[in-house]
Known about the structure:
The chain is an all-beta fold. The protein has a domain of 67 residues. The protein is built from two helices and 56 strands. Strands 35-36-37-38-41-42 form a six-stranded antiparallel beta sheet, with no helix packed on it. Strands 16, 51, 52, 53 and 56 form a five-stranded antiparallel beta sheet that branches. It is elongated, with a radius of gyration of 47 Å. It starts with a strand and ends with a strand. 40% of the residues are buried.
Amino acid sequence: xxxxxxxxxxxxxxxxxxxxxxxxxxxxxxxxxxxxxxxxxxxxxxxxxxxxxxxxxxxxxxxxxxxxxxxxxxxxxxxxxxxxxxxxxxxxxxxxxxxxxxxxxxxxxxxxxxxxxxxxxxxxxxxxxxxxxxxxxxxxxxxxxxxxxxxxxxxxxxxxxxxxxxxxxxxxxxxxxxxxxxxxxxxxxxxxxxxxxxxxxxxxxxxxxxxxxxxxxxxxxxxxxxxxxxxxxxxxxxxxxxxxxxxxxxxxxxxxxxxxxxxxxxxxxxxxxxxxxxxxxxxxxxxxxxxxxxxxxxxxxxxxxxxxxxxxxxxxxxxxxxxxxxxxxxxxxxxxxxxxxxxxxxxxxxxxxxxxxxxxxxxxxxxxxxxxxxxxxxxxxxxxxxxxxxxxxxxxxxxxxxxxxxxxxxxxxxxxxxxxxxxxxxxxxxxxxxxxxxxxxxxxxxxxxxxxxxxxxxxxxxxxxxxxxxxxxxxxxxxxxxxxxxxxxxxxxxxxxxxxxxxxxxxxxxxxxxxxxxxxxxxxxxxxxxxxxxxxxxxxxxxxxxxxxxxxxxxxxxxxxxxxxxxxxxxxxxxxxxxxxxxxxxxxxxxxxxxxxxxxxxxxxxxxxxxxxxxxxxxxxxxxxxxxxxxxxxxxxxxxxxxxxxxxxxxxxxxxxxxxxx
Length: 662
């Protein structure tokens, strides 16, 4: 209701107004109730309102103020938030302070089941609240709640599947294999997780291995029988085109894939098709664990180029690729490496075959990086030969002392040059093997027609080729040297280290030989054109023992490699012409056959296998997997059965990758 104030006598006489339940018989009476003097002239609403009377609203109407009251209980302001009080309008238009029970302060300690509320007199009162704390142990089958203002834990079966401390028998292997062979159940213990109580990992269980390990006689695959490991065939895969294609080196990638390095002429299909740029290119294949092709890459230029060796590193592979005749190749890097004569590219690739670094070992003559091995820092040592008058590998130039000398160079993990050295006589010197210890000591084997020093005393030649085996420290300094010599050709051996640091060397023995100039009963041929010898040296360099394997039917044998497995057993592989008695007797079918043989850690033969036809077939160096399985890359001509049926040759020669159980 609004009360109008006017100078009109007629309006004042007829005004009858009800204000907040009070009847006004005249405008004068209403003004008296409001305490407003008569008359009140105005030009705007501001003239009709007073700050001291917030509950009275004035309005300028026709030059005079008209008034009304805010509704009873109208909130003018809350004073201080959280003080339980507000200022409101009463029925008579006065501003008064009243208690407001909803104006309690915010809860400053949530999760304590208590809260401050407004009492009847406006004071704060501590009261019960339903604000339990967060569950600090989810999955413990208990949930926190508030009971009479106190925190309590109540059972909550929905939050758990087990109670802490419960244990259960568990097994994740195929049904029916628990308790068979090495397979056994484990124990799972109830544990707390964010999603509730659950049974944790199965501790102590043994599930089937993919196959029986050749490192023990146990039934690892839980088939009920333990497989006898006698070189059992697993697979053989052939790759090639219509040209001459060869395989030389195979290693296993971190994920179980296989990398195979070789060479090809023309085109080869390995999922994708690669084509050589010149007469011959290096070929790098990636296969899955079962030997199926995933991809192929070629490296080379206009000359005759090929892959010579590959080494497994922690984060990729090192490949040695021979470039000749002006061939140029980038290997995926920023700049091309171009050969001058016959040179070698030493290239580091990651597991996805991305370029990391490369060096070109190049001079004016012919160079060859024959061997490489991984250093403890994931760097590499590369050993080879050079016929150039001098060769610079990143340090001081190396000077050739004869027709062909030996070089050894160490590169850090990032490819930077660490050191390089050369060893040579006035005659022809050739590398035949390298092996590294876990501490970085370097062992090399070579053969020479001259008097050769490998940093220590010179070995005086005893006739034609002599064998030299030497140990260098990680800085390339001489530690010790041994020589195996006869009047005939003593071709240098392949060498490997066992886990105790002792060294085995295997080579061809055409005549009675001496060890360091002293006749040895362990180095006497049994018969034949060239027998196979195996000698064993302690880590300190002292001679331990030797063996000779008979090639009495006139075999020509030269081991491509000697590898060592995780059981310290030895693996021979190479090419065989004629017969060789190494446990059992194996005989080539025509020309050279590929062969592989396993010996125990003491050099005693366990088994030997051959594969070949009427033409030349060979295996390169063996790669022994962590479970003892043997991977081999090689070359075959014609159709050859490597154990699983004949592989059909597609051209002059094809590349083969084979796997055998150790």
